[in-house]
Design goal:
three-stranded parallel sheet; two-stranded antiparallel ribbon; alpha/beta; single chain; Rossmann fold
């Protein structure tokens, strides 16, 4: 599950992990998370744990979700958002204007990091390390991970066996749910991508 909106989400600004200013959820963001948590409530008996990124907006999302589902909350540092370095807090348009060549290179090569930040290749290593720990500790169980756009996309790309560059072709709404099943033989299948409660259906509201 992606976290709800923060001040950076609303302004379409880059917002990374613990190396940034680490904004909390806004009131709108908390309401989004509560709506999704209520949507997931029928699954509560099957949920063994809520596993959260340590970054504040995801941790707050995890706390709300765990409280609603009656599940224990576990922190996994591997699920933190990518670090955006000097781009932190800047909008996409501002980065394109101030760092045009760096952005062009970054969007075409997953091994390239923003200035002072982290590449998708580097992030994939820690995200998948975190995923391996969760799969080992919760084998055969259902867990809900509260995380961020980049880690969720990287997990989806891994599950589907697609190149990391595919992350640039995915979009995730705030407080949305993506469901992936992992099997003991190493296979995985995606069952849902960017799922939202009907009240927040992007096709119904016209907003994404």
């Amino acid at each position: 599950m992606r976290h709800g909106v923060t001040k950076h989400t609303s302004s379409k600004a880059f917002s990374g992990g613990l190396g940034g200013d680490n904004p909390p959820l806004t009131q709108e963001g908390r309401e989004q998370v509560l709506l999704t948590a209520e949507w997931l409530k029928p699954l509560a008996p099957a949920v063994d744990a809520v596993v959260t990124s340590p970054v504040l907006r995801a941790a707050e999302t995890g706390e709300i979700l765990a409280g609603t589902l009656g599940a224990r909350l576990v922190e996994e540092p591997g699920f933190a958002e990518i670090e955006f370095g000097k781009w932190e807090g800047l909008t996409f348009a501002e980065v394109a204007q101030q760092y045009p060549e760096e952005m062009k290179t970054w969007m075409g090569a997953t091994e390239v990091a923003p200035p002072g930040g982290e590449s998708f290749d580097a992030a994939q290593v820690r995200v998948l390390d975190g995923l391996s720990r969760v799969l080992e500790e919760h084998a055969g169980q259902t867990v809900v991970i509260t995380s961020h756009v980049s880690p969720i996309k990287l997990i989806v790309a891994h599950a589907l066996g697609t190149p990391i560059g595919g992350v640039f072709n995915m979009e995730l709404s705030p407080a949305s749910v993506t469901v992936v099943a992992f099997y003991s033989d190493g296979r995985a299948s995606m069952r849902l991508f960017n799922g939202l409660p009907v009240a927040r259906d992007p096709f119904a509201t016209g907003t994404f």
